[in-house]
């Protein structure tokens, strides 16, 4: 009996084990098709997937391997384990593609079979077949556009030629969406053919690369405010160069033409949030761009700063510009206090595009002409590309000088018995005040070659820009500087004076090469970059009075150059809900200054700009090593937190550690987000600011004088005046905002920011004689010993507090008549204040010197508009488009050096631009535009009795503070050809 029971128990256990093993085996092989799995997660996560069933039907998987609560983690693993990529198109829709090397086969699906492409499988009765073609604004077909019947899972994608076909109900609404373009809705209304032109430009659903170093996100999903501006939006401003385009597209960005300011007139300082050119980092394809060789040392906005030469980046080479409006030193290192500009270059383009443009002001001057060509070729058969851009642009001078008819700066009245007739013939005192002459040629390229089954890529990009320019110095009237040896006039003709020209020869080149691959499960990016900017100076139509008849009339007055060499190694990886990134950067910098010819500086030097002397020659270098780490954690599908930490060690002044924390919470149904960040930052003093020295001819104290700039390593400055070694500026940056997308085509955002800066590097005001002729103080002794009337230097001396708000509202695809309207309203409001007292070195303070007077203070607190508002409309009607842009530049204030009663506030003005575009065919289009349609100028200068304010009437409009320049109306036009 016991034996039987034992046998029965043993047999039962055997059966149970067998059943468990069978179930386990069945569980291992219980796989389902990819389409079935997509249907399951579509229901669970309330999203939709668009794909071609024919391509996914043979793919099976084990759903047990994908038991995650976070959708992003499921998608990431599907991309790892299958041969498909998943792209999020917004509005809860994903499109499923073959991996990149197979996509051509997908895109070229014949139109007759496109109806088979659908979202998760459904069976419905359709009453109408709609077909059509989707193109961009230029008429180029768009392959892979996602097309969904609103409120259903029925949809398709366009083929390689932009064609589609879909069965829908007569009253259905179709949603067209594509990464990089605005989403568009169309009501079928019984139509059988619907052709769509998608508008490229800013949209919350577009994927952006700047702002984090782990996982690319859309502007909506980012924890910091980012503008994503397409090249068509830039061109629709009608402006000639990328710095001016951004001025009329981004409220917190400013750049204006400068005049009578030596080399500054050839670069035009540009900045974000009014924080100065030095504090905006510029990237090309995510890699640091070299700064220019120039320090802006003239009396203009950005004085004492160093920026990137934005004129060296051709618009024709740019696909889009990402503008990060937040401190990012913890991610990118020095200079990113105000924000980051990331220029994304074009890759594959379907057509070779040639643009020809020209323009002229309503005054008949300032003629400009430009032509550029952009093309691409395939490199191999696996998606490799080489994009090339060639461009040329030139502009003539403009002149908006004042016409006082007298010269109060030199005390020469209009009825002067000697010079009255000359003043009557030359009421403008011979001046040329306006934009400089410029000729610019550039060559750019961008290339990439995939390898390792598209898991890696060799890439390279870069360019060379060559630019020449001519600006003008103060006119040397015949009662100011004589020409007794007839060097600049014929001996048989009356002497009328001369106007020296300041001419530049600028070269800017940058080159990056690198490799992207996968290493131990991490995405790896290893690259090297070299960039250099150089400028040679010539002064022509001038003389050196001390050399008499032996004086040249053209002088080589010296040259500057600045170059960087970078090595970057970056790693990133997605661990489901957690994304990490880390890496290192090694940077070497080199700044040089070359002396001019002896005749340019000897015995007072050439009129207008004494050349650089052998004592000014510099060859300075330094290097730094940076290490960073970045982490982002999607705690839930809606709640994101992130942090970054970066350590930098410089070979000259020491080290810095910056950090950042950020967070974002998505609002219901991905209709918006609440975001905030707090970060510390820093900016290393540039080599230019440390080592620059020269002598300039300037107006100082009502007289023309030679002013010396002494560098920070000069014993006269360090030991004689007790000026400390330059060190890093530091900052604390807080931002908080909300984005909201209540309907498909409407997006809104509001962001508050506050930037507190300590130890900002200043270029001091004029430090001269104190007026006491009975004694000589230590500062005056230095002036006497160096034959100068005043001196300047760089010093860490001021703390500032900047508070502001950015507003952006976009409403696109508004049906208006037979066309569509897009409207944009954006604004920036800001205020910068000086915290505490200027940190004046002890010796100077003891002798009563004010190193940063009220006029100098106004350059950092009120030289840029405290408010700027953009209101733009784009109307598309078939092949015709019209753009109307209104830009309000708020008031700016110039402060008198010593007398507050002489301050002047220049009122805000609205600049209106009107641009027409017409497409004659798929390959030929033309445009005509009017910038500053209403011929608006800034307020005229009110001297309030101080003749130095406008240099005796020579300047009619402000130049030391600036809103939008003073060229007036410009009419321009262009033609675009595609081959």
Description:
By secondary structure, this protein is mainly β. The protein is 12% helix and 44% strand. Strand 23 (353-361) and strand 24 form a beta hairpin. Mean pLDDT is 85; it is low at 1-29, 100-126 and 201-205.
Please write out the topology.
Layout: H1 2-29, E1 32-33, H2 34-45, E2 48-51, H3 53-56, E3 60-61, H4 71-81, E4 84-90, E5 93-98, H5 103-107, E6 118-119, E7 128-135, E8 146-149, E9 155-157, E10 163-168, E11 173-177, E12 184-187, E13 196-197, E14 207-208, E15 217-218, E16 226-230, H6 231-235, H7 242-247, E17 253-255, E18 270-272, E19 280-284, E20 287-288, E21 318-324, H8 329-332, E22 339-345, E23 353-361, E24 368-379, E25 384-395, H9 420-425, E26 437-451, E27 456-472, E28 501-519, E29 522-540, E30 554-575, E31 578-595, H10 598-601, E32 618-634, E33 639-650, E34 654-666, E35 672-683, H11 687-691, E36 694-700, E37 703-709, H12 715-720, E38 729-743, E39 746-763, E40 767-768, H13 778-785, E41 790-792, E42 794-816, E43 819-835, H14 842-846, H15 854-861, E44 867-877, E45 880-889, E46 892-894, E47 904-906, E48 909-919, E49 924-931, E50 970-978
Parallel strand pairs: 2-5, 7-13, 19-22, 37-41
Antiparallel strand pairs: 1-3, 2-6, 4-5, 7-10, 8-9, 8-11, 11-12, 14-15, 16-21, 17-18, 19-20, 21-22, 23-24, 23-50, 24-25, 25-26, 26-27, 27-28, 28-29, 29-30, 30-31, 31-32, 32-33, 33-34, 34-35, 35-38, 36-37, 38-39, 39-42, 40-41, 42-43, 43-44, 44-45, 45-48, 46-47, 48-49, 49-50
């Amino acid at each position: 009996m016991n034996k039987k029971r034992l046998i029965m128990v043993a047999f039962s256990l055997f059966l149970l084990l067998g059943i468990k093993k069978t179930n386990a085996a069945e569980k291992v092989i219980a796989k389902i098709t990819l389409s079935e799995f997509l249907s399951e997660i579509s229901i669970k996560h309330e999203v939709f997937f668009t794909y071609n069933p024919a391509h996914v039907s043979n793919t099976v998987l084990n759903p047990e391997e994908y038991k995650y609560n976070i959708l992003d983690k499921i998608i990431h693993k599907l991309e790892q384990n299958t041969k498909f990529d998943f792209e999020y198109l917004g509005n809860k829709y994903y499109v499923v593609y073959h991996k990149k090397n197979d996509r051509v086969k997908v895109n070229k699906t014949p139109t007759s079979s496109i109806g088979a492409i659908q979202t998760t499988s459904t069976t419905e009765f359709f009453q109408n077949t709609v077909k059509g073609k989707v193109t961009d604004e230029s008429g180029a077909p768009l392959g892979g556009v996602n097309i969904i019947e609103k409120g259903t899972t029925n949809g398709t994608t366009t083929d390689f030629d932009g064609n589609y076909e879909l069965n829908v109900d007569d009253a259905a609404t179709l949603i067209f969406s594509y990464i990089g373009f605005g989403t568009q809705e169309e009501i079928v209304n019984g139509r059988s053919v619907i052709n769509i032109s998608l508008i490229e430009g800013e949209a919350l659903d577009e994927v952006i690369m700047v702002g984090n170093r782990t996982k690319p996100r859309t502007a909506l999903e980012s924890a910091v405010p980012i503008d994503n501006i397409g090249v068509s939006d830039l061109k629709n401003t009608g402006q000639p160069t990328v710095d001016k385009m951004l001025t009329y597209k981004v409220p917190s960005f400013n750049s204006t033409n400068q005049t009578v300011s030596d080399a500054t007139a050839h670069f035009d300082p540009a900045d974000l949030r009014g924080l100065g050119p030095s504090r905006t980092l510029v990237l090309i394809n995510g890699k640091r761009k070299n700064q220019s060789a120039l320090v802006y040392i003239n009396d203009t906005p950005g004085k004492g700063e160093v920026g990137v030469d934005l004129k060296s980046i051709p618009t024709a080479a740019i696909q889009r510009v990402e503008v990060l409006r937040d401190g990012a030193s913890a991610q990118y290192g020095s200079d990113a206090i105000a924000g980051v500009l990331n220029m994304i270059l074009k890759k594959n383009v379907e057509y070779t595009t040639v643009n020809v443009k020209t323009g002229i002001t309503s005054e008949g001057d300032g003629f400009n002409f430009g032509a550029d060509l952009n093309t691409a070729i395939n490199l191999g058969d696996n998606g490799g590309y080489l994009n090339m851009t060639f461009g040329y642009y030139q502009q003539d001078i403009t002149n908006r000088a004042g016409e006082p008819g007298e010269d109060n700066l030199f005390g020469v009245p209009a009825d002067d018995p000697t010079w009255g007739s000359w003043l009557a013939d030359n009421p403008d005192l011979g001046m040329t005040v306006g934009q400089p002459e410029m000729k610019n040629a550039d060559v750019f390229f961008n290339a990439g070659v995939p390898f390792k089954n598209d898991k890696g890529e060799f890439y390279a990009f870069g360019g060379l820009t060559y630019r020449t320019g001519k600006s003008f110095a103060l006119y040397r009237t015949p009662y100011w500087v004589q020409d007794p040896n007839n060097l600049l006039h014929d001996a048989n003709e009356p002497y009328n004076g001369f106007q020296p020209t300041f001419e530049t020869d600028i070269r800017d080149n940058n080159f990056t090469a690198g490799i992207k691959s996968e290493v131990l499960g991490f995405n790896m990016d290893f690259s090297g970059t070299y960039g250099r900017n150089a400028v040679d100076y010539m002064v022509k139509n001038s003389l050196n009075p001390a050399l008499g008849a032996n004086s040249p009339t053209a002088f080589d007055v010296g040259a500057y150059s600045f170059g960087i060499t970078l090595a970057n190694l970056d790693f990133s990886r997605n661990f489901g809900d957690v994304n990490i990134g880390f890496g290192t950067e090694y940077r070497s910098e080199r700044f040089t200054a070359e002396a001019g010819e002896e005749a340019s500086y000897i015995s007072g030097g050439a009129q207008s700009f004494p050349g650089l002397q052998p004592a000014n020659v510099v060859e300075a270098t330094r290097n730094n090593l940076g290490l960073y780490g970045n982490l982002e954690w999607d705690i839930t599908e809606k709640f994101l937190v992130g942090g970054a930490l970066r350590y930098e060690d410089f070979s000259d002044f020491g080290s810095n550690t910056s950090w950042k924390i950020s967070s974002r919470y998505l609002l219901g149904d991905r209709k918006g987000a609440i975001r905030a960040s707090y970060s510390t930052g820093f900016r290393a003093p540039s080599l230019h600011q440390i080592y620059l020295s020269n002598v300039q001819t300037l107006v100082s104290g009502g007289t023309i004088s030679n002013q010396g700039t002494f560098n920070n390593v000069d014993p006269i400055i360090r030991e004689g005046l007790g000026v400390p070694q330059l060190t890093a500026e530091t900052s604390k940056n807080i931002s908080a905002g909300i984005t909201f997308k209540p309907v498909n085509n409407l997006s809104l955002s509001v962001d508050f920011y506050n930037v507190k800066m300590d130890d900002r590097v200043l270029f001091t005001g004029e430090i001269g004689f104190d007026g006491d002729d009975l004694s000589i103080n230590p500062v005056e002794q230095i002036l006497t010993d160096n034959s100068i009337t005043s001196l300047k230097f760089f010093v860490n001396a001021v703390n500032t507090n900047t508070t502001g708000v950015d507003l952006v509202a976009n409403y696109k695809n508004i049906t208006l008549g037979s066309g569509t309207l897009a409207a944009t309203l954006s604004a920036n409001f800001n205020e910068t204040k000086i915290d505490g007292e200027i940190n004046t070195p002890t010796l100077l303070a003891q002798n009563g010197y004010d190193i940063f007077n009220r006029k100098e203070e106004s350059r950092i607190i009120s030289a840029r508009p405290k408010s700027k508002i953009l209101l733009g409309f784009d109307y598309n009607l078939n092949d015709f488009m019209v753009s109307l842009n209104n830009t309000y530049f708020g008031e700016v204030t110039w402060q008198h050096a010593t007398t507050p009663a002489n301050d002047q506030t220049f009122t805000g003005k609205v600049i209106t631009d009107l641009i027409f575009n017409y497409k004659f065919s798929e390959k030929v289009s033309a445009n005509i535009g009017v910038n500053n349609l209403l011929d608006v100028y800034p307020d005229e200068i009110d001297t309030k009795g101080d003749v130095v304010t406008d240099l005796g009437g020579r300047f009619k409009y402000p130049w030391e503070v600036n809103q939008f320049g003073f060229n007036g109306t410009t009419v321009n036009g262009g033609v675009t050809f595609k081959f």
